[in-house]
Amino acid sequence: MTGHEGKAPSAVTFHGSWTDFAKIALPNVLLTLVTLGVYRFWATTRERQYLWSQTRFIDEPLEWTGRGIELFIGFIMVFFLLGLPLVVMQLVINGLVFQGQPIIAGVIIFATFMAIFYLTGLAYFRALRYRLSRTYWRGIRGGSDDQGFGYGWSYIWKNVVAAIPLYLLYPWASMSLWNERWSKMSFGPYQFQSNADWKALMKRYLLFYLVPFLVFVGAAVLGFSMAASGGGGGDPFSTAGGAFAVVMIILAILGLYIIMPIAALLYYSKFMRVAIGALRLGDLEFDFTARSPDWILFWLANLAILMLAYGFAFAPFSLLIAADPTQFAQQLEAGESILSVGLVVGILIAIIPIAFATSIIRYRSWKFFVVHTEAFGEVNLDRMTQSETQSSSHGEGLLDAFDVGAI
């Protein structure tokens, strides 16, 4: 691509289909289920191989070269270096409390919390580093020589500073961390550059920030008005207190599950446009074209997929209960175990549609980002040499451990 103007074809395209992806996702779900989760590392690799191969940059496909064993080793490392120490630490803290030393226990709890906080930041950095190092284009890969240890400290102090004024500086912290993370990455011989301006996010963030207060005030005013109008001039709280409480609860739930996610999507939409729009790689500039309506429709479609999956998941239980509802109710009243072979099988079957739907959502997420990503500028293939950055030998186990990873 040579510039922002004009109607030239996109430099970044996606050629996959969800039906082809489903042929990979469904066996992955079944194999992960029968191996009690062990196969999920290889399932992730198969998914990425397909998604990367269907993504083209200037008509050349990407290639994912990561292996399932690398992700598995990353998980094992986290288990022994973080999981077991946390279990031991919990036992030590309980022992100190029983021995009447709560101050020492509190210090250990704080130190443990800070360690997890630090490792979360390190996980974000090293996962991006790993994924770039396993992503190839025309035989060229990305990566970073930075190990991410300094970024872990930045993650702590910047989030602490953002929290001091009641999280009003969260846009500064998140954008500053984005800039720092990407500016330490490279692809081929070129270093990424990112100088996104966090101040462009403040209007959207303040909208999201004030939504809980606006919802509460609106619910209180409307509920009070309804209670007063239905009270016949008496005390609204004594004559219509029930209606007042119901209105408050309903409006709070609507605000929590509808208005808040929409406000969050409005903010995230702006964040991605500003962040990716400020990203540079050599002479290449990037842009992200998804607007707020695109995000809302994307989110609603994902929600519909999940609701459909949960409907299929609970169907076996409803059939099982409907077959003998009297016995089921008697077991619950008597406090007896309702576990049976049929119920266990039903639980296992219920996992399949939910896990499959989650895989489809990952596919849709990748496609969404690729379709809305643009690249502009010149690519000098003669200067695009292989990266000389280090390549880690294991996957993003930390990211999986803290549940902050995503394709």
Could you walk me through the main structural features you see in this protein, from its secondary elements to its overall organization?
Helix 2 crosses helix 3 (68-98) and helix 10 (292-323) packs antiparallel against helix 12 (341-371). The chain has a domain at 197-274. It contains 13 helices and 10 strands. Helices cover 66% and strands 9% of the residues. It has a 10-stranded antiparallel beta sheet with strand order 1-2-3-4-5-6-7-8-9-10. The longest helix has 37 residues, at 241-277. Residues 401-407 have low confidence and may be disordered. The protein has 407 residues and is of the alpha+beta class. The relative contact order is 0.14. It has helices at 18-34, 40-53, 68-98, 102-133, 149-163, 170-183, 202-229, 236-239, 241-277, 292-323, 325-334, 341-371, 397-401, and strands spanning 12-14, 55-57, 60-64, 135-137, 140-143, 186-187, 190-194, 279-281, 284-288, 373-376.
Report the portion of residues in β strands: 5-15%
* Total E-strand runs: 10
Overall radius of gyration: 26 Å
Largest sheet: 10 strands, antiparallel
Order of helices and strands: EHHEEHHEEHHEEHHHEEHHHEH
How does the overall form come out from the CA principal axes? globular
Strand order of the largest sheet: 1-2-3-4-5-6-7-8-9-10
N-to-C CA distance: 26 Å
The averaged pLDDT comes out at: 83
Number of helices: 13
Helix and strand content put the structural class at alpha+beta
> What portion of residues is helical?
55-70%
**Uncertain stretches:** 401-407
